[in-house]
Write a structure and sequence with these properties.
With 248 residues, the chain is α/β, with parallel strands linked by helices. Helix content is 46%, strand content 19%. The strands form two sheets. It has a five-stranded parallel beta sheet with strand order 2-1-3-4-5, with helices on both faces. The protein has a five-stranded parallel beta sheet with strand order 7-6-8-9-10, with helices on both faces.
Length: 248
Amino acid sequence: MILLVMEPGKRLDVWRTQLEMAFPNVKVISAQEDKMALDLAEQYKPTLLVLDYDLPESGPFSIIQKVRATSPSTKYVLLTSSVGQQEMAKMGGADLVHLQNVSIKQFVNSVNDTFPNLLTQHKNKKFILIAGNGDDFFKTLYEKLVNNGYNVKNVRDGAHAMIGIVENPIDLVILDMKLSDFDGLRVMRVLRRIKQDLPIIGISKSGYDIDNSQIERYNAKLLIQPINFDDLLKLIKSSMLKEEITET
Protein backbone atom coordinates (compact mmCIF):
# COMPACT_ATOMS: atom_id res chain seq x y z
CA MET A 1 0.00 0.00 0.00
CA ILE A 2 1.11 3.55 -0.79
CA LEU A 3 0.13 6.46 1.46
CA LEU A 4 0.31 9.90 -0.17
CA VAL A 5 0.47 12.92 2.14
CA MET A 6 -0.18 15.98 -0.03
CA GLU A 7 -2.40 19.04 -0.19
CA PRO A 8 -5.83 18.27 -1.68
CA GLY A 9 -6.29 19.28 -5.29
CA LYS A 10 -5.47 18.37 -8.85
CA ARG A 11 -1.83 17.43 -8.12
CA LEU A 12 -2.88 14.86 -5.50
CA ASP A 13 -5.52 13.45 -7.84
CA VAL A 14 -2.99 13.11 -10.67
CA TRP A 15 -0.39 11.44 -8.44
CA ARG A 16 -2.91 9.01 -7.03
CA THR A 17 -4.27 8.06 -10.44
CA GLN A 18 -0.83 7.65 -12.02
CA LEU A 19 0.51 5.55 -9.14
CA GLU A 20 -2.56 3.28 -9.31
CA MET A 21 -1.79 2.75 -12.99
CA ALA A 22 1.94 2.18 -12.39
CA PHE A 23 1.32 -0.27 -9.53
CA PRO A 24 -2.07 -1.87 -10.34
CA ASN A 25 -1.80 -4.45 -7.58
CA VAL A 26 -1.11 -1.85 -4.89
CA LYS A 27 -3.78 0.17 -3.08
CA VAL A 28 -3.11 3.93 -3.00
CA ILE A 29 -4.62 6.05 -0.20
CA SER A 30 -4.12 9.71 0.67
CA ALA A 31 -4.15 12.15 3.58
CA GLN A 32 -4.04 15.93 3.69
CA GLU A 33 -2.84 16.61 7.22
CA ASP A 34 -0.87 15.14 10.12
CA LYS A 35 -3.57 13.39 12.15
CA MET A 36 -5.18 11.76 9.13
CA ALA A 37 -1.78 10.57 7.90
CA LEU A 38 -0.89 9.05 11.28
CA ASP A 39 -4.31 7.38 11.67
CA LEU A 40 -4.10 5.81 8.21
CA ALA A 41 -0.50 4.73 8.71
CA GLU A 42 -1.37 3.03 12.00
CA GLN A 43 -4.39 1.32 10.46
CA TYR A 44 -2.89 0.14 7.18
CA LYS A 45 0.90 -0.08 7.77
CA PRO A 46 1.76 1.28 4.29
CA THR A 47 4.63 -0.18 2.31
CA LEU A 48 5.56 3.27 1.02
CA LEU A 49 4.82 6.71 2.46
CA VAL A 50 5.19 9.63 0.03
CA LEU A 51 5.26 12.92 1.89
CA ASP A 52 5.41 16.57 0.85
CA TYR A 53 8.18 18.14 2.92
CA ASP A 54 6.25 21.37 3.57
CA LEU A 55 2.83 19.90 4.37
CA PRO A 56 2.84 18.45 7.91
CA GLU A 57 2.31 21.06 10.64
CA SER A 58 4.62 19.14 12.96
CA GLY A 59 7.27 18.68 10.27
CA PRO A 60 8.02 15.66 8.06
CA PHE A 61 10.51 14.10 10.45
CA SER A 62 7.95 13.95 13.25
CA ILE A 63 5.63 12.03 10.91
CA ILE A 64 8.41 9.64 9.91
CA GLN A 65 9.38 9.04 13.54
CA LYS A 66 5.81 8.33 14.67
CA VAL A 67 4.96 6.08 11.74
CA ARG A 68 8.22 4.18 12.11
CA ALA A 69 7.23 3.32 15.69
CA THR A 70 4.12 1.45 14.50
CA SER A 71 5.26 0.37 11.02
CA PRO A 72 9.02 -0.27 11.04
CA SER A 73 9.12 -1.72 7.53
CA THR A 74 7.58 1.33 5.83
CA LYS A 75 9.84 3.16 3.35
CA TYR A 76 9.76 6.97 3.16
CA VAL A 77 9.96 9.30 0.18
CA LEU A 78 10.11 13.05 0.80
CA LEU A 79 9.19 15.50 -1.95
CA THR A 80 11.01 18.78 -1.37
CA SER A 81 10.67 22.26 -2.83
CA SER A 82 14.38 23.11 -2.73
CA VAL A 83 17.81 21.54 -2.91
CA GLY A 84 18.46 22.67 0.67
CA GLN A 85 15.49 20.70 1.87
CA GLN A 86 16.84 17.65 0.05
CA GLU A 87 19.94 17.59 2.25
CA MET A 88 17.80 17.97 5.39
CA ALA A 89 15.50 15.18 4.21
CA LYS A 90 18.39 12.77 3.76
CA MET A 91 19.66 13.59 7.25
CA GLY A 92 16.17 13.24 8.72
CA GLY A 93 15.63 9.61 7.79
CA ALA A 94 14.04 9.67 4.35
CA ASP A 95 14.85 6.59 2.29
CA LEU A 96 14.45 8.49 -0.99
CA VAL A 97 14.27 12.21 -1.81
CA HIS A 98 12.94 14.03 -4.87
CA LEU A 99 12.06 17.58 -5.80
CA GLN A 100 8.29 18.14 -5.95
CA ASN A 101 8.42 18.82 -9.68
CA VAL A 102 9.74 15.32 -10.44
CA SER A 103 7.78 13.60 -13.19
CA ILE A 104 5.74 10.62 -12.02
CA LYS A 105 7.53 8.42 -14.55
CA GLN A 106 10.90 9.38 -13.04
CA PHE A 107 9.50 8.86 -9.58
CA VAL A 108 8.22 5.36 -10.38
CA ASN A 109 11.52 4.36 -11.98
CA SER A 110 13.42 5.69 -8.98
CA VAL A 111 11.21 3.80 -6.51
CA ASN A 112 11.65 0.56 -8.46
CA ASP A 113 15.43 1.05 -8.64
CA THR A 114 15.79 1.99 -4.96
CA PHE A 115 13.40 -0.60 -3.56
CA PRO A 116 13.47 -3.62 -5.91
CA ASN A 117 10.28 -5.72 -5.65
CA LEU A 118 8.92 -3.56 -2.81
CA LEU A 119 5.68 -2.79 -4.65
CA THR A 120 5.58 -5.84 -6.91
CA GLN A 121 5.99 -8.58 -4.31
CA HIS A 122 2.23 -9.26 -4.36
CA LYS A 123 1.92 -9.36 -8.12
CA ASN A 124 0.97 -13.06 -8.13
CA LYS A 125 -2.10 -12.42 -5.98
CA LYS A 126 -5.42 -12.63 -7.75
CA PHE A 127 -6.90 -9.22 -8.50
CA ILE A 128 -10.65 -8.77 -7.96
CA LEU A 129 -12.72 -5.75 -8.95
CA ILE A 130 -15.87 -5.00 -6.96
CA ALA A 131 -18.40 -2.73 -8.67
CA GLY A 132 -20.90 -2.12 -5.88
CA ASN A 133 -23.03 0.55 -4.26
CA GLY A 134 -20.90 0.71 -1.11
CA ASP A 135 -23.50 -0.76 1.27
CA ASP A 136 -22.63 -3.02 4.20
CA PHE A 137 -22.62 -6.16 2.05
CA PHE A 138 -19.93 -4.85 -0.29
CA LYS A 139 -17.90 -3.34 2.55
CA THR A 140 -17.88 -6.69 4.35
CA LEU A 141 -17.07 -8.51 1.12
CA TYR A 142 -14.10 -6.20 0.50
CA GLU A 143 -12.69 -6.93 3.98
CA LYS A 144 -13.15 -10.68 3.59
CA LEU A 145 -11.44 -10.73 0.19
CA VAL A 146 -8.47 -8.73 1.48
CA ASN A 147 -8.22 -10.97 4.55
CA ASN A 148 -8.20 -13.99 2.22
CA GLY A 149 -5.17 -12.69 0.36
CA TYR A 150 -6.75 -11.07 -2.69
CA ASN A 151 -5.87 -7.71 -4.20
CA VAL A 152 -9.15 -5.80 -4.42
CA LYS A 153 -10.20 -2.65 -6.23
CA ASN A 154 -13.50 -0.95 -5.35
CA VAL A 155 -15.54 1.16 -7.77
CA ARG A 156 -19.03 2.58 -7.31
CA ASP A 157 -20.43 2.60 -10.85
CA GLY A 158 -20.39 0.85 -14.20
CA ALA A 159 -18.27 3.45 -15.96
CA HIS A 160 -15.39 2.98 -13.53
CA ALA A 161 -15.83 -0.80 -13.71
CA MET A 162 -15.24 -0.63 -17.46
CA ILE A 163 -12.23 1.64 -17.00
CA GLY A 164 -10.88 -0.63 -14.27
CA ILE A 165 -10.95 -3.66 -16.56
CA VAL A 166 -9.01 -1.80 -19.24
CA GLU A 167 -6.40 -0.31 -16.92
CA ASN A 168 -5.83 -3.20 -14.49
CA PRO A 169 -5.07 -6.94 -14.77
CA ILE A 170 -8.40 -7.97 -13.23
CA ASP A 171 -8.96 -11.71 -12.66
CA LEU A 172 -12.62 -11.57 -11.59
CA VAL A 173 -15.45 -9.02 -11.30
CA ILE A 174 -18.16 -8.92 -8.65
CA LEU A 175 -20.93 -6.76 -10.03
CA ASP A 176 -23.90 -5.11 -8.33
CA MET A 177 -26.78 -5.52 -10.76
CA LYS A 178 -28.25 -2.16 -9.66
CA LEU A 179 -25.47 0.37 -10.14
CA SER A 180 -26.09 4.11 -10.06
CA ASP A 181 -25.33 4.75 -13.74
CA PHE A 182 -25.81 1.57 -15.78
CA ASP A 183 -27.93 -1.54 -15.60
CA GLY A 184 -25.88 -4.55 -14.51
CA LEU A 185 -26.63 -6.50 -17.69
CA ARG A 186 -25.32 -3.62 -19.81
CA VAL A 187 -22.11 -3.55 -17.79
CA MET A 188 -21.77 -7.33 -18.18
CA ARG A 189 -22.14 -7.00 -21.94
CA VAL A 190 -19.37 -4.39 -22.16
CA LEU A 191 -17.05 -6.28 -19.80
CA ARG A 192 -17.51 -9.44 -21.83
CA ARG A 193 -16.53 -7.59 -25.00
CA ILE A 194 -13.38 -6.29 -23.29
CA LYS A 195 -12.31 -9.66 -21.88
CA GLN A 196 -14.12 -12.75 -23.10
CA ASP A 197 -12.97 -15.19 -20.41
CA LEU A 198 -13.24 -12.86 -17.41
CA PRO A 199 -15.26 -14.49 -14.58
CA ILE A 200 -18.19 -12.26 -13.60
CA ILE A 201 -20.42 -12.74 -10.57
CA GLY A 202 -23.56 -10.62 -10.42
CA ILE A 203 -25.11 -9.68 -7.07
CA SER A 204 -28.82 -8.83 -6.83
CA LYS A 205 -31.19 -8.09 -3.97
CA SER A 206 -34.04 -9.50 -6.07
CA GLY A 207 -33.84 -11.82 -9.02
CA TYR A 208 -37.34 -11.11 -10.31
CA ASP A 209 -36.25 -8.32 -12.66
CA ILE A 210 -33.17 -10.14 -13.99
CA ASP A 211 -33.23 -11.91 -17.35
CA ASN A 212 -31.48 -15.20 -16.56
CA SER A 213 -31.07 -16.01 -20.24
CA GLN A 214 -28.94 -12.86 -20.55
CA ILE A 215 -26.84 -13.92 -17.55
CA GLU A 216 -26.18 -17.25 -19.24
CA ARG A 217 -25.47 -15.50 -22.54
CA TYR A 218 -22.70 -13.51 -20.90
CA ASN A 219 -21.35 -16.67 -19.22
CA ALA A 220 -21.75 -15.09 -15.79
CA LYS A 221 -23.07 -16.21 -12.41
CA LEU A 222 -25.93 -14.54 -10.54
CA LEU A 223 -26.38 -14.66 -6.76
CA ILE A 224 -29.44 -13.37 -4.92
CA GLN A 225 -29.07 -11.81 -1.48
CA PRO A 226 -28.89 -12.85 1.29
CA ILE A 227 -25.61 -14.53 0.41
CA ASN A 228 -23.41 -16.73 2.56
CA PHE A 229 -19.92 -15.26 2.39
CA ASP A 230 -18.20 -18.64 2.76
CA ASP A 231 -20.14 -19.95 -0.23
CA LEU A 232 -19.30 -16.81 -2.20
CA LEU A 233 -15.58 -17.17 -1.44
CA LYS A 234 -15.70 -20.78 -2.65
CA LEU A 235 -17.41 -19.67 -5.87
CA ILE A 236 -14.81 -16.95 -6.42
CA LYS A 237 -11.97 -19.42 -5.97
CA SER A 238 -13.52 -22.04 -8.26
CA SER A 239 -14.38 -19.46 -10.94
CA MET A 240 -10.78 -18.26 -11.17
CA LEU A 241 -9.50 -21.84 -11.15
CA LYS A 242 -11.73 -22.64 -14.14
CA GLU A 243 -10.32 -19.59 -15.94
CA GLU A 244 -6.75 -20.79 -15.33
CA ILE A 245 -7.62 -24.25 -16.72
CA THR A 246 -9.26 -22.66 -19.78
CA GLU A 247 -6.22 -20.45 -20.45
CA THR A 248 -3.90 -23.45 -20.12
